[in-house]
């Protein structure tokens, strides 16, 4: 081993934005990616996915994946297609979730390309970003690990996963580089969950770090308390007449959908759910729910106890898993009475669009947003008060009653983020990633003023060396 080993970190994706998470760690001659996520947003944003990587794919020795969400994992098949031949390290439940999310992403890519061709597009967008063969080859590169166990990434660099409490398998990545006379530690927060959230355990902080990369999605926001959010959800259900209204919930297939079912199951009687039909209208969310259920050893105590009482999902009467498109269309023929959970969570595609097309112009219907809506997304436009939106080429007036319930977010708010950071001894320098600039600046201000930390906001392409 050389005495002077250069260690540097370059921020390529999710620098001053919330999507396309990808950072490059160089240790001596080795190059390791932390995440390789898809850029999500409007068409212009998503066109960026076709651009060349700012590094040679075949020059990447390994990838360490923080969690399965597509904005962290979604360009792995493209990396494979462009020549990557190394290993992808992931927590074991993350790998299971990544397999269903990446297969789904290949289907979405194919259908987007078909739509682009139908619209007369001949450029990049007329070709799928990757296909199912790329995905299957990518999945064979996965090496899985349990939480807390150290593993070698490349010679001289070890890593381990700590629970990030964001979705099942989500990880804080602790990296240890052996250098002359000791070890340098870099910690990548991945996406951090809220403390005391159901099903998942609390985010874990590392015992030490020389440099921290921290997400800042809600760096400027304080969530409503979870209890209050759950109470609001209950009041909305109790106050709504199922005879004529639907409650439509755009939800991410992984994480939010499971928590919603969990809350509905816990409060079924109190909220009079017998009056409703509950639809989990997403084959992907149904598969993800099965993976959650199989990994109960990762649950927090309450969910674990509940899992022991039931062999399968908690019995929720009138819960329908609609796997096929035909089953999904039946829902649209109902005048009301449906609590419809469907993806995508940002309304960027999927079955939620059919439901929104049916309910958005009806003032008796409700749309309930439970998660982050990125700039440029249909969900964001609706929340921001658009009077009309376009869905499947049709202009639709927004007259339904809109609700946002922030307390169920899978991301921590600034108090959670600061709490996680404070638990790391020695106030290591922190680079803020994965946030809109205003959220980052707000968090930077708090970290500097309230905690006395040195926090920077790297530009895309900027490098820091250790
Ligand atoms: Zn995430």
Kindly describe this structure.
By secondary structure, the protein is α/β, with parallel strands linked by helices. The chain folds into 2 domains: 7-221 and 410-465, Ribonuclease Z/Hydroxyacylglutathione hydrolase-like (Metallo-beta-lactamase, Chain A); 226-408, Rossmann fold (3-Layer(aba) Sandwich), CATH 3.40.50. The chain is 30% helix and 22% strand. The protein has 14 helices and 22 strands. The strands form 4 sheets. The protein has a 7-stranded mixed β-sheet with strand order 6-5-4-3-2-1-22. The protein has a 7-stranded mixed β-sheet with strand order 7-8-9-10-11-20-21, covered by helices on one side. Helix 4 packs antiparallel against helix 5 (132-139) and helix 4 (92-118) packs antiparallel against helix 8 (283-294). The longest helix has 27 residues, at 92-118. Zinc ion is lined by residues 67, 69, 166, 191. Residues 67, 69, 166, 191 line the site of zinc ion.
